[in-house]
Amino acid sequence: MALAALVNSLENARYYDPPYGEFSIARALRESEGRWTPVFRRVRERFTGVGNLLDARKKLYLYLGASSDEDAYTKLLSAMESPMKLEAVASWRDLYRELESLAELPMVRYYEREARPYITASVVVGRGPGNLMNASIHRVSPVGARRAVVRLVPRHLYYIHEMNMRAGGETPVAIAWGTHPLVLVAAASSPPLGVFELEVAARLAGGLKVIELDNGAVAPFMASIIIEGFITRDLAEEGPFVDVLGTYDRVRAQPTIRVEKIYVLREDAYVHYLLPAGAEHALLMGFDREARIWRAVKSVAPGVRKVRLTRGGAGWLTAVISLEKSSEGDAKNALLAAFAAHPSLKIAIAVDGDIDPDDPVAVEWAVSTRLRADRGIFVIPYARGSSLDPSALNEEGLTHKVGIDATRPLDADSLLFERAKIPEA
């Protein structure tokens, strides 16, 4: 489905018109989070912008056709374990026009110290040796009319590019901007190398059509913008840009992309503005990890009720797990399982089933009233964490991790730990 058709079906859209100041789109994205879907008409000639398509869990579950956390987790995990073959479309070029320069695309800056405008919701499909394919979300910024720099962290696209360079070649890529939200959900997930995330999207969506570019990479059919090119050996300065924590990431030398073609839909070219460190960014980046934590915790503590990568932890560094203990030690096992399932996790908190992890006041109350620090806190020293963490001991994310058992002791009078309630009228 073209993004335009999806946006036109939304009931809570609010429309904006030019002129757009330098940070007006970022401000609109911030003020509309959890409230309405902003649609930006004429962000550039023949372009429309949209944001906050996935800024709330209920929207994500609607796209997934899920009725609960467990249903949503299961759908995503099952799709990664049982991807669906893609359907190739032969005739597509007449639907697109070509641009000469990246400068013609409606990229924006979001924060005052960012180096330049960039794309935050770009799905980069890279091709490795043989038929190895990977789709993942990366920020991309122009450093010339037909040259861009891409941030590569040591994950699958990074390793594919390393393999291609060792073989003496470059990495063919397709950069898709303006895709169905389920494509973004799949691209943000991390199945094993060799499982193609677009095939995960196909399973989630009940099928997905793709087009094959001249360089051998593929892109979702009807993506609003498709950039065809090659990741090269050349490097350029990348940053500063804002990451999911809401801090400015380090300036690094990163690989550049040589752009061969820029395709844009002739009709209804809608681009997706994803606010860095916004609710949409946190949910997209963290949901796959949350599902993994849920599965891991459930295997050691069957009484798990809810798992949340918290908003205060940017959907990445802090998890709260509610569970019903059957014996002492269940909470600590659950916390250890969470750290194993999501290596970037820095803080994990276990609470009882009567505490809602979505309520930060309730979580703090549980820590205040149920934690015994002498037996409820443990530290995992010198463990690999997140490279995004500005307090880490090195650029690879070496850190000390903290587990907090804020569950009530089973051998104590439960009435002492009960939250008092006023009866309903």
Strand content: 25-35%
Characterize the main sheet: 6 strands, antiparallel, barrel
Say which CATH homologous superfamily of the largest domain is assigned: Electron Transport, Fmn-binding Protein, Chain A
Our count of helices gives 11
In CATH, the topology of the largest domain is named Pnp Oxidase, Chain A
Helix proportion: 25-40%
The arrangement of helices and strands along the chain is: HEHEEHHEEEEEHEHHEEEEEHEEHEHHEE
Backbone CA Rg? 22 Å
Mean pLDDT: 95
Describe this structure in words.
This protein has 2 domains: 83-266, Pnp Oxidase, Chain A (Roll), CATH 2.30.110; 280-417, UbiD C-terminal domain-like (3-Layer(aba) Sandwich), CATH 3.40.1670. 26% of the residues lie in helices and 30% in strands. It has 11 helices and 19 strands. It has helices spanning 3-8, 24-32, 57-64, 69-81, 156-166, 181-187, 197-205, 279-300, 330-341, 360-370, 373-376; strands spanning 13-16, 37-44, 47-51, 87-88, 96-98, 119-127, 133-144, 147-150, 171-177, 209-212, 218-220, 225-238, 252-265, 269-273, 304-309, 318-323, 347-352, 377-384, 398-406. The chain has a 6-stranded antiparallel beta barrel with strand order 6-7-8-13-12-9. A 5-stranded mixed sheet has the order 15-16-17-19-18. A 4-stranded mixed sheet has the order 1-2-3-14. It is globular. The N and C termini lie far apart (49 Å).
Topology of helices and strands:
Blueprint: H1 3-8, E1 13-16, H2 24-32, E2 37-44, E3 47-51, H3 57-64, H4 69-81, E4 87-88, E5 96-98, E6 119-127, E7 133-144, E8 147-150, H5 156-166, E9 171-177, H6 181-187, H7 197-205, E10 209-212, E11 218-220, E12 225-238, E13 252-265, E14 269-273, H8 279-300, E15 304-309, E16 318-323, H9 330-341, E17 347-352, H10 360-370, H11 373-376, E18 377-384, E19 398-406
Parallel strand pairs: 1-2, 3-14, 4-10, 16-17, 17-19
Antiparallel strand pairs: 2-3, 5-13, 6-7, 6-9, 7-8, 8-13, 9-12, 10-11, 12-13, 15-16, 18-19
